[in-house]
Design goal:
Elements (H helix, E strand, L loop, with lengths): L1 H10 L1 E3 L3 E3 L1 H5 L4 H15 L6 E5 L3 H12 L3 E4 L11 E8 L4 E8 L8 E9 L3 H13 L2 E11 L4 H7 L4 E10 L4 E3 L4
Helix pairs in contact: 3-4
The chain binds guanosine-5'-monophosphate.
Guanosine-5'-monophosphate (5GP) binds next to strand 2, strand 7 and helix 5.
């Protein structure tokens, strides 16, 4: 998605060698018009799938998932990362190692909101080592649901998540794939 790549080049900052900050438009302040374009692009790639639910994980996946879901006209279910008194006790749970926090957490989804009737599209803002997406796939499997695929805004192609998912035969669409980056330049994978 050319407008996404242009925006990453113009506005993103790279921290160290492997964290990209896009707080201007995606992760802290959200540009809703741009988000609508992102939603349309994800919809275009998966519109032939009979999607019944979009699954993401709190917090930063929610905005992107909602933008796509408004075109599919299906509910968004977001996995919760922390125990909460108002979360149902009957949950699908998967342990996930967080790349940005460098610690594990339990990802939970109430059993009310996913079932074997569902055909699930997983959406997230970033794909790095793929742990968050693997946790969501684990939850889809626990529910007995089927997987339509995985839609990602920014994949860091130099980390292993995308490769591992594609090796499993899963359809993974990333709107921008970063091949390499440092503080002075960002290189995108060409075929995107
Ligand atoms: P993974 O589980 O694929 O290793 O990491 C993906 C999750 O970590 C995403 O849900 C995203 O929130 C966060 N993440 C991973 N890398 C980055 C990054 O470079 N920048 C930002 N803002 N978030 C990231």
């Amino acid at each position: 998605m050319q407008s996404l790549k242009d925006r990453i080049r113009a506005e993103a900052t790279v921290i160290g060698t492997d964290i990209l900050k896009v707080d201007h438009f995606l992760n802290h302040q959200v540009d809703v018009d741009f988000l609508q374009e992102v939603g349309q692009e994800l919809y275009r790639h998966f519109q032939d799938e009979p999607v019944t639910k979009i699954l993401t994980v709190e917090a930063s996946g929610i905005a992107v998932a909602v933008a796509a879901a408004m075109l599919f006209h299906v509910p968004v279910v977001f996995a919760k990362k922390s125990a909460s008194l108002n979360l149902d006790q009957d949950t699908y749970t998967s342990e996930v190692f967080s790349f940005t926090r460098q610690t594990s957490y339990l990802m939970k989804v109430s059993k009310r909101y996913l079932s074997q009737e569902d055909h699930v599209l997983i959406i997230d803002d970033f794909l790095a080592n793929g742990r968050a997406v693997q946790g969501m796939i684990d939850i889809v499997k626990q529910a007995g649901a089927s997987l339509a695929g995985v839609g990602i805004v920014i994949e860091k192609g130099f980390q292993e998540g995308g490769r591992l998912l594609r090796q499993q035969g899963i359809k993974v669409v990333s709107l921008a794939i970063i091949e390499a980056m440092d503080e002075s330049h960002i290189e995108f994978r060409e075929e995107q």
